[in-house]
Design goal:
alpha+beta, Butyryl-Coa Dehydrogenase, subunit A, domain 1, Butyryl-CoA Dehydrogenase, subunit A, domain 2, Butyryl-CoA Dehydrogenase, subunit A, domain 3, 3 domains, seven-stranded mixed beta sheet, two-stranded antiparallel sheet, 11 helices, oxidoreductase, Acyl-CoA_Oxase/DH_mid-dom_sf, FAD, acyl-CoA dehydrogenase activity, AcylCoA_DH/oxidase_NM_dom_sf
């Protein structure tokens, strides 16, 4: 299979890397994390919009670039290398694809240009407490009332939930004694009855738990009631899974580079520790894990929109398993090879390690996808 990128794709990757290298050093990231109440920089977010990265998943007919999974993969590679705190995955990938896929003409015209320009941020509020990675387990309910719906329920650990202007909330359409199909509602963050609790996650990202206490939304907030929302949501989540796999590869590459550089400069017993054969073997194993992860990231990008659902599910689970194993192995080896300083806040290695650990648990853990893959083979 030919993995050569087109000239436009390579330009996208190079441009994003240059922007991050110029405007997003590790010290800049640290300052943003420590001083921004939102946990990210609006200035950097506008810079991503000016590069066209926020319009990457907006269809051409809606005024966007109409990029696909490969273009998203390349952008996420660079974002992983830079360890960006900005809500690219949540807003520019998941939420944008949800609106582009399920929104009607008026909803797309109103929301997509604002998201592409960086004027609005949206977040997909789907995960709930106790679901154990079962994305179909949605307890939030939408009760039809008058000319709208009343939402009740809770959402858990929604990245950038308190910064989003718009929350795309998943709920089961319900009536007395009945549970209906899955639906997605575009809900402004400041509606009465909607309560958010903000906190920092282990990787430095701001997340929120959301309580929906009889939140009334008009019928126009419902994204395409005629669609098979559950099937569409699975496609959207698979696109997000492929994107986060690409982010992991970018972070893994930077972690390996930092470890090799440290091994060249750190001396023990009068010579660089990189000359010790046992440590060379460890770094060689890191390279093998990363190259396997890169190949599976390509597979995820190619298969995340496959209309053959079973083929897609196997490919996505396989990619998440291999990349999850690489996140854990490479992260642990990098920390150990750096010694005690590998876990200090002053060194970027510890931050890459924490982000990789968070990635391993998102969109289903390594163990869960291993079980899914085995069940699909059986």
């Amino acid at each position: 299979m030919d993995f050569t990128f087109t000239e436009e794709q390579q330009m996208l990757l190079d441009t994003t890397r240059r922007f991050i290298a110029k405007d997003y050093s590790f010290e800049t990231r640290r300052k943003i994390r420590e001083t921004s109440p939102e946990g990210f920089s609006r200035e950097v977010w506008q810079g991503l919009a000016d590069l066209g990265l926020l319009s990457l998943n907006v269809p051409e007919e809606d005024g966007g670039l109409g990029g696909g999974a490969i273009e998203t993969m390349l952008a996420m590679n660079a974002i992983g290398e830079g360890l960006l705190l900005e809500p690219y995955l949540q807003s520019a990938v998941l939420a944008t694809k949800a609106i582009a896929t399920l929104g009607d003409e008026q909803q797309r015209a109103e929301l997509l240009p604002a998201l592409a320009a960086g004027e609005k941020i949206a977040a997909l509020a789907h995960d709930e407490h106790g679901t154990r990675y079962d994305w179909r387990a949605v307890e939030t309910r939408a009760w039809p009332v008058g000319d709208g719906y009343v939402l009740t329920g809770h959402k858990s650990v929604i990245p950038h939930g308190t910064s989003a202007d718009l929350l795309l909330i998943t709920a089961r359409l319900a009536s007395i004694g009945a549970q209906g199909p899955l639906a997605i509602f575009a809900v402004p963050r400041d509606l009465p009855g909607l309560q958010l609790s903000s906190y920092a996650t282990v990787d430095g990202v701001r997340a929120a738990d959301i309580a929906l206490n009889q939140v009334f939304v008009p019928a126009t907030a419902l994204l395409d009631a005629a669609a098979d929302t559950e099937a569409k949501l699975e496609e959207i989540l698979d696109a997000g899974l492929a994107a986060i796999c690409a982010e992991a590869v970018g972070a893994l590459d930077k972690l390996l580079a930092a470890t090799v550089e440290y091994a060249r400069n750190r001396k023990q017993f009068g010579q660089p520790i990189g000359k010790f054969q046992a440590l060379q073997h460890r770094m060689a194993d890191m390279v093998l894990h990363i190259e396997q992860a890169r190949s599976m990231s390509y597979l995820a990008a190619v298969r995340c929109a496959d209309p053959d659902v079973e083929t897609r599910r196997r490919a996505m689970s396989a990619a998440k398993v291999v990349i999850g194993q690489a996140c854990r192995f490479v992260g642990q080896q990098a920390v150990q090879l750096h010694g005690g300083m590998g876990v200090t806040d002053e060194l970027d290695v510890s931050h890459y390690f924490k982000r990789l650990m968070a990635i391993e648990m998102q969109f289903g853990s390594t163990d869960q996808h291993l079980e899914l893959y085995a069940a699909q083979l059986g």
